[in-house]
Design brief:
Blueprint: E1 3-6, H1 14-25, E2 30-33, E3 38-43, H2 47-57, E4 66-68, H3 72-78, E5 79-80, H4 83-92, E6 97-103, E7 118-122, H5 127-136, E8 140-144, H6 157-164, E9 170-173, E10 183-186, E11 193-196
Parallel strand pairs: 1-9, 2-9, 4-7, 6-10
Antiparallel strand pairs: 2-3, 3-8, 4-8, 5-6, 6-7, 10-11
């Protein structure tokens, strides 16, 4: 049975954030709110939790995970970022965007796209997610909370609890945070290419 923690969505309580981070460091698979929707999250090196996410979502080994980072300086550790890509990301972060970039050697192979050697990275604009990242001191390996045969993410914490409390270690109730996943932007392409239209606006494309 998982832990269920209610955290204030705008002013996260420090003691609860510390509890969440202690669980993540101990190997927990958690569900947490972001600025787009709820997501699965665990530490970067947690192979077991990664396999559990694949099992819950019924995805294959080539499922693309995202590294959720606290800021752009952290992104530069895990991806090769050119000047144009950096300027674009700076204008859109923090926000509901996932950027596809060439992975560096800091990214474990199992997290990279096996053919393109890419990784998805993002910087969320959600107080709970940002507080977790600040306390943890490294990115969270993440995947959108979309269950098998569903088109939309789960958004109600109590429903998530009923569906998944036996399958994850920790569920954070951060109130309803939305139904739309992130907008995915391929920054390897020139010009940038929209892979998935989500919550993030794409009006900036007109200026590219």
């Amino acid at each position: 049975m998982s832990q269920f923690v209610t955290i204030h969505p705008k002013n996260p309580q420090a003691r609860f954030i510390q509890q969440v981070v202690a669980n993540i460091r101990a190997g927990a698979l958690c569900i947490y709110p972001t600025d787009s929707c709820y997501a699965f999250g665990c530490s970067i090196g947690n192979k077991t939790a990664m396999a559990r996410i694949n099992s819950i979502r019924q995805t294959d080994k080539e499922h693309n995970f995202t590294l959720v980072c606290s800021d752009l300086s952290e992104i530069a550790t895990y991806a090769k970022v050119g000047n144009a890509a950096f300027r674009l990301m700076k204008s859109l972060t923090p926000g509901p965007y996932t950027f596809i970039l060439q992975a560096t050697h800091e990214v474990p192979r199992r997290l990279q796209n096996p053919k393109r050697k890419t990784i998805g990275l993002r910087v969320p604009a959600h107080p709970i997610a940002q507080a977790i990242l600040a306390e943890l001191g490294e990115p969270i390996m993440s995947s959108t909370l979309i269950l098998p045969e569903q088109d939309m993410p789960e958004t109600d914490p109590e429903t998530i609890r009923q569906l998944l409390e036996k399958h994850v270690d920790l569920i954070i109730d951060g109130d309803n945070c939305g139904l739309k996943p992130t907008t995915v932007v391929d920054l390897i392409s020139d010009p940038p290419k929209i892979i998935r239209q989500g919550k993030g606006l794409i009006d900036w494309l007109a200026n590219e």
